[in-house]
C-alpha cells in the first residue's frame, strides 16, 4: 500500500483498488462486496472523479478547435503528410523523430553537424529498439533516415525545425528551408516561446508556417501545442492538428505570444519558485511540496531535465541574464550545469534521476542571500503551493482574456498532458474553481501585499499597440525586482466547467 500511495501521489482511486482487493482476499464474500461498494460510492462522489471526468471531456473538446479569426476544425481541411523531416537533432528533435517512426510515418532526421548526427542516430535507434521490445513488435528502423544538410528536403510534405532557441538561428534555418523545400511543404517550428510570425515572415509561404511545440520527453508526453500565427492558413493549422493526433498526441490550438500557453504560464511558476529560494526555501523543499501536490517532478527537477538551457536562452534573448538577477538565474549559469549538455542539475547532484541536495547550491544560496541583505525565513508548504500555483493560474486567466487559448479546458489539457499536472486535480483552471476563485484571488492579493515583487499581472492593462495579433500584450518580466502588480484573476463569465 505504501508503494501504491507513493506512486499515486494523492490520487485516491489506486489506494481504494488495493483496499478493495484486500477486502476481497480477507473478508467473507458479502462483506467484501459491501466494502467494495462503499469504496466505489466514495470514489464516484469524490471531487477527484469530477476532476478526472473534466480531463476526459476536455481532451475530447480540444479537438473541436477554433481561432478568433474564424478558423475551425469543421471548416478547415488537413493535407496528408506522407513523409516528414525534423531539422535539428538535439534532445527534442530526437524525441520527435521517434514519435514519427512509432506512428508509422517515414521521417528524415536532419543535422548540420556529422558528429551530432551520429549521436542522434544511436539514441533514436536505441529508443526505438527498447520501445519495440517492450511492446513485442519489430522496431520501425526502416522508417527513419538521417542526413547531413538540407538537400533531401524536396521529398517531404512537412518539416519540423527543432534547432536551438535562438531567433537569429531559427530565422536562418527558415530562410534555408524556404528554398530547400517544395513550395507546398508546411514549415513548422518546435520553438518554446519565440514569435512564430517573425519566422513565417522569412519564408516564401507564411501561410504554411505553424508552431508544433512538443513537450519533453517528446516521445513520451502526450501534448502538442499547435500555434497559429496571424498568417497561418486553415489548412496549415488543420494539418498540424491532425498530424499531432496521428503521432498519438492530443493537439491543442493556441495563439502566438511569448511562451504561447504552457510556457507563458510556466514562466510565472518558475519565477515564484526562484523567489522562494531567495526568501529561504531550498529547492528540495519547493520540489517536495509540488510533488506531494501530485506533479511527477517538482519545478527544479523538471527544469533540470528539460528547461535549464531553453529557459536560459529565452531569458538571454529577453536581456534577463545580467547581474542582479534572482538566484535561479545565477544557479543556471553555473559552469557546466546547464542540462542537456550535462545531466547535472541545480537541485541534484551530478547525473542520475535521484534528486539529492547539492552542497554547492546550498552555500551558493546562503552567500547570495547575505550579499543581497536577505534574511532567510521559514517557508511553509502551503506558501510554496499557493505562490507557485496561483501565479500560474493567474497567468492562465490573462491568457483567456487575451484570447490565446480558446477556453479553460484547453489550458487544463495543456498542463495535465504537457507538464504532468495531476489529473485528479483536473488542471490549473479547474483547480482554481475547485479551491474557489475568491480564495485564490484573496491569496494572490495577500502575497502581492506581502511581497511587492510577487506576481505577475499589471494593475493597468498594457497599451494595445504593444501586443501582437491586435491583442494586448501580456506583461513581460522586466527583471526579477519589478514592482508587484495586482492579480489578473477575476471570476470569468465564460468559465463553463464546474468542478
Ligand atoms: C516570455 C515568456 C517566456 C517563456 C518562458 C519559458 C520558460 C522556461 C522554458 C522552460 C523549458 C521549456 C521546454 C519546453 O518548451 C516545454 C517542456 O517540455 S517543459 C517539460 C514538461 N515535461 C514534464 O514536466 C515531464 C515531467 N515528467 C513526467 O511527467 C514523468 O517523468 C514521465 C515523463 C511521464 C515519465 O514518468 P515515468 O514513466 O514514471 O518515468 P521517469 O520519471 O523515471 O522518467 C523516465 C525517463 O524520462 C525522463 N524525463 C522525465 N521527465 C523529463 C523531462 N521533463 N525532460 C526530459 N526528460 C525527462 C527521465 O529522465 C527518464 O529518463 P531515463 O532515465 O530513462 O533516461
Automatic annotation (TrEMBL):
Single annotated GO MF: lyase activity
Alphabetically ordered keywords of this record: Isomerase, Lyase, Multifunctional enzyme, Oxidoreductase
Pathway where this protein functions: Lipid metabolism; fatty acid beta-oxidation
Residue intervals of the 3-hydroxyacyl-CoA dehydrogenase NAD binding domain: 83-256
3-hydroxyacyl-CoA dehydrogenase C-terminal domain span: 259-317, 384-467
Pfam families reported in the protein's UniProt record: 3HCDH, 3HCDH_N
Gene Ontology process terms (BP): fatty acid beta-oxidation
One cellular-component annotation, GO: peroxisome
Chain positions covered by the region annotation Disordered: 323-342, 450-499
Catalytic activity: (3S)-hydroxyhexadecanoyl-CoA + NAD(+) = 3-oxohexadecanoyl-CoA + NADH + H(+); (3S)-hydroxyhexadecanoyl-CoA = (2E)-hexadecenoyl-CoA + H2O; (3S)-hydroxydecanoyl-CoA + NAD(+) = 3-oxodecanoyl-CoA + NADH + H(+)
The protein's name in its UniProt record: Enoyl-CoA hydratase
Taxonomic source organism: Synaphobranchus kaupii
